[in-house]
UniProtKB/TrEMBL annotation, chain A:
GO terms for biological process: transmembrane transport. The chain crosses the membrane at residues 32-53, 93-115, 135-153, 183-207, 241-262, 288-310. It comes from Amnibacterium flavum. This is Sugar ABC transporter permease. Belongs to the binding-protein-dependent transport system permease family. GO terms for cellular component: plasma membrane. Residues 89-311 form the ABC transmembrane type-1 domain. InterPro entries: ABC_transporter_permease, MalF_N, MetI-like, MetI-like_sf.
């Protein structure tokens, strides 16, 4: 919240109509739309038309060969009663924990510590080397990650079970991805590993625009590290925190690659997620209509989450501007 | 190269510090016990993160027999390169590498340009309903990719771009620029007003201001975006797998995943394929690491 910034600014009385930040006199408001033409044109072809198409397919019976046949709400009714669909949504909550909550909180702490303690006391090189290491899993193609992780976690002579054997914990050896009780947890650990570097890099880039004098002033005022972290770090890089939480939440809702390469949703439905479910209906069961229904439902959910985030964000930004 | 990194979104919150004596840090270079503990913890974390990469490295140079007798954790008994050579020749690696490089590179550049144009109108121009426009662009990111596959497959087939790498370039330019538009619109939204006013006072047009003022000042953010876009596109695999059916148009991750079902792949060749799959992005990342780094050092030196 803006109120955590310890320097109180004069409040402007009334909210104004949003106007361009670029005060050219000759320019017309409509002119700004010219800049959106290439972006919007591409968007229309690659996203908007397929989106509408997909919504249409969700009202049809379509197996990919004969033309789609209109069946009204049948798919949607089936969806509401579909146990597998709800199971996949329950797993999505686990994905949000593993891809949003843990990485953002941990990433914030790591970024602050690397920037503020490691960077200042042990040199920027050490800090950037560590940051690069945390970022490594992010540059790993998911196809490759699937090979490596599957191989570490596999039951016979997988690296993890071997390590447990070495340190005398051989009893804990397990078919990590193959048994219903550990599959989801294993996937979550993998996703945290993959995801962590992203907030670390974004937050450290954001910290560069925080004025070091702010920290020094706070230090003089007797603020401890934790207080400075909460009041300055978190307050100043709030735009990036929004960006990271939103993009990670979206990624968690539509996570597909890691599930596809590691478990294919199994065993049973223990790691099934909506987008994998949609994919399997599209391409394995050839139930294109029903697959489109799942995908559309997922899109609607993601859309609602995004609108919620964006409104919160623009409210915060406006509050910031008015506070200036 | 400018070494000072201009602040992008600094709210004028420094009044409070103006009349304080500037404290010079003489204590800065004396790490306390807690600092050292923090350093050790971050290093331990980094080792845990890097562990799977070390495994790939060790096992790519082992013979299958060596692997079977000593397991995944030991160092190779002798240097064995056949795994790497096998994979290299089986997939015609240079060709796959080139496909991946030009596709990812083109997408990264196109997507940054589109993001800048969009964000300029949204963040600086503050067009009406800008939240909704951002949301429209974000749709590209919101939609699960599986939902796009069927329609896009049909559309690209109709215009004759199916099995053509440009189809993948177009799709990912849109998907990546969605994120770029969102991030840059937010960054441009807090662009220092004084700078824009100065440019307007000098009679600069919008177009000139964008390329001569805003883009240079935002370069750190733009470089980060460029790096992200390149790596993200490189790593994509569902859409390339679907759209690039010809062996000669495949990207590195697609080639690797296609080979996975292959019975002839022994475990060390698999590891070698993983190694060759990571190295290119790793090199790219290390080259551009400086761009990401500049921020940290600037903050620490100031």
């Amino acid at each position: 919240m803006a109120t955590q910034v310890p320097f109180v600014r004069a409040q402007r009385p009334k909210k104004q109509r949003e106007v361009s930040a670029f005060p050219d006199r000759g320019g017309r408001a409509a002119g700004w739309w010219l800049y959106l033409i290439p972006g919007l044109a591409l968007l229309t072809f690659v996203v908007l038309i397929p989106l509408v198409w997909n919504v249409y397919l969700s009202f049809t019976e379509y197996r990919g060969i004969r033309p789609p046949e209109w069946i009204g709400l049948e798919n949607w009714v089936k969806l509401i009663g579909d146990e597998e669909f709800w199971a996949s949504f329950r797993n999505t909550i686990a994905m949000i924990v593993a891809m949003v909550i843990v990485p953002t909180v941990l990433g914030l702490l790591i970024a602050a510590v690397l920037f503020d303690i490691v960077g200042r006391k042990f040199g920027g090189r050490t800090a950037s080397f560590l940051r690069a290491t945390y970022y490594l899993p992010q540059i790993l193609p998911v196809a490759v990650a699937g090979i490596v992780i599957g191989w570490i976690l596999r039951p016979q002579n997988g690296a993890l079970n071997e390590i447990l054997g070495y340190v005398g914990l051989g009893d804990l050896a397990h078919n990590w991805l193959g048994s219903p009780d550990t599959a989801l947890l294993s996937i979550m650990v993998v996703l945290i590993w993959v995801q962590l570097g992203y907030p670390v890099v974004i937050f450290m880039a954001a910290l560069q625009r925080v004025d070091p004098e702010l920290y020094e002033a706070a230090e003089l005022d007797g603020a401890g590290w934790w207080q400075r972290f909460r009041a300055i770090t978190v307050g100043m890089i709030r735009p990036e925190i929004f960006v990271v939480t939103l993009t990670c939440t979206i990624a968690a809702l539509k996570v597909f690659g890691p599930i596809y390469v590691l478990t294919r949703g199994g065993p049973g439905t223990s790691t099934l997620v909506p987008s994998y479910y949609a994919y399997s209906e599209f391409f394995q069961s050839q139930q294109v209509g029903y697959g489109a229904t799942i995908a559309t439902a997922l899109t609607i959910l993601i859309g609602i989450v995004a609108v919620f985030f964006l409104r919160a964000q623009s409210a915060a930004e406006r509050a910031d501007r008015e506070g200036l | 190269m400018t070494t000072s990194t201009p602040a992008l979104t600094v709210p004028a919150a420094t009044e409070g510090t103006a009349n304080r004596p500037a404290p010079r840090q003489n204590k800065r270079n004396k790490p306390t016990g807690v600092d050292i503990l923090v350093l050790v913890l971050t290093i331990v974390g980094a080792i845990a993160i890097a562990f799977p990469f070390l495994l790939i490295l060790i096992n790519s140079f082992k013979s299958p027999a060596d692997y079977n007798s000593t397991g995944p954790l030991s160092f190779p008994g002798s240097l064995y390169l056949d795994g790497i050579v096998n994979f290299w020749e089986r997939v015609n690696f240079p060709e796959k590498l080139w496909n991946s490089i030009w596709i990812s590179g083109t997408v990264a550049v196109f997507a940054v340009v589109i993001s800048v144009l969009n964000a300029f109108a949204i963040g600086i121009g503050r067009i009406r309903g800008n939240t909704w426009v951002v949301l429209a662009f974000l749709l590209a990111n919101l939609l699960p990719q599986e939902a796009l596959l069927y329609p896009l497959y049909n559309m690209f087939k109709a215009v004759g771009l199916y099995n053509n790498p440009w189809s993948v370039v177009i799709i990912f330019t849109v998907i990546q620029s969605a994120f770029g538009t969102y991030l840059l619109a937010s960054v441009f939204g807090t662009f220092p007003k004084e700078v824009l006013e100065a440019a307007a006072l000098d009679g600069a047009s919008r177009w000139t201001t964008l390329w001569r003022v805003i883009v240079p000042i935002s370069r750190p953010t733009l470089s980060v975006l460029l790096i992200f876009f390149f790596i993200w596109t490189w790593n994509e695999f569902l859409i390339p797998l679907t759209f690039l059916v010809d062996n000669s148009t495949q990207t590195v991750p697609v080639a690797i995943s296609v080979l996975q079902g292959d019975r002839l792949m022994d475990v060390t060749t698999t590891s070698a394929s993983a190694l060759l799959g990571v190295i290119p992005t790793l090199i790219f990342f290390l080259i551009f690491q400086r761009t990401l780094t500049r921020g940290i050092t600037a903050g620490a030196v100031k």
